[in-house]
Amino acid sequence: MLYSISFRNLIVEIVRGDITRFKAEAIVNAANKYLEHGGGVAYAIAKAAAGNSKEYIRISKEAMREQIGRAWIEHGEVVVTPALKLEKYGIKYVIHTVGPYCGGRWDEDKKEKLKKAILGALRKADELKVRSIAFPAISAGIYGCPFEKVVRTFLETVEEFSRGTENVREVYLVLYSREDYERALKVLKVGGQFK
Ligand code: AR6
Q1: Which structural domain range is residue 155 located in?
Q2: Which has the closest alpha carbon to 108: 156, 172, 41, 171?
């Protein structure tokens, strides 16, 4: 089954796995604007990176004050923290970004916010001279955005980004459940016409 797609000199792969142990130089966290990491993939990353989610929340908030100069981030703004214990998997950075809250609804505004969130993380990875970056399905969990829309928007955004990338060459969408993985493959399978 088709599971990868090339955009210019960048390859996107959809894989099934746990992003907290995925071998990519940067992994992206589906955070909230305060970097509270209370549940979902955010909690899993925080706990795995620092051994204790509270400690990673503290590190994230401190990094946010230094990098953004505020106690919250907007869609498109990102914060970088060190991978700490995740370094054993080859991960160097965690890039925190915030997607839209959907609660089951989807419209152009949510799509734009999701694009900004994804693009912000991709640009930061490029700036950090990262070659490979892994994303979870941002906003498709607790934030309730429709899964297929999230996957389509992800692919569209990576395609846009591929025009300007200097360092990033491999982008992974890491899906936790078999069901999500199979649903995402169906989106890809439509002959690459994911739009
Ligand atoms: N590896 C890969 N994907 C995962 C993992 C994992 N270890 N664990 C969960 N997922 P969510 P959101 C998937 O809810 O919707 C947090 O509390 C999950 O199945 O983590 O953007 C934040 O602090 C889903 O497909 O993120 C925010 O408050 C995807 O990751 C809020 O949730 C995203 O689900 C953000 O909600």
Answers
A1: 2-194
A2: 156
Burial of 154 (0-12, 13-18, 19+ CB in 10 A): buried
Render the burial of 12-35: b for 16+ CB within 10 Å, e for the rest. bebebeebbebebbbbbbbbbeeb
pLDDT for the residue 117? 99
Choose among 138, 128, 185, 179: nearest CA to 12: 185
Decide whether any atom of ligand 1 lies within 6 Å of the 100 Cβ: no
pLDDT tens for each residue of 45-60 = 999 999 999 999 999 9
pTM for the model stands at 0.97
Q: Check if 174 has its Cβ closer than 6 Å to any atom of ligand 1.
A: yes
Asked if residues 185 and 2 have their Cβ atoms less than 8 Å apart, the reply is yes
Q: 37 in ligand 1 pocket by Cβ < 6 Å?
A: yes
Sheet arrangement for strand 132-135: 4-7, 10-16, 170-175, 132-135, 26-31, 93-98, 79-82
Number of structural domains the chain divides into: 1
Model pLDDT for residues 78-117, shown as the tens digit of each residue: 999 999 999 999 999 999 999 999 999 999 999 999 999 9
Which CATH number belongs to the domain containing residue 82 in this structure? 3.40.220.10
106 Cα to the center of ligand 1, angstroms: 18
The enclosing H or E element of 96 equals: strand 93-98
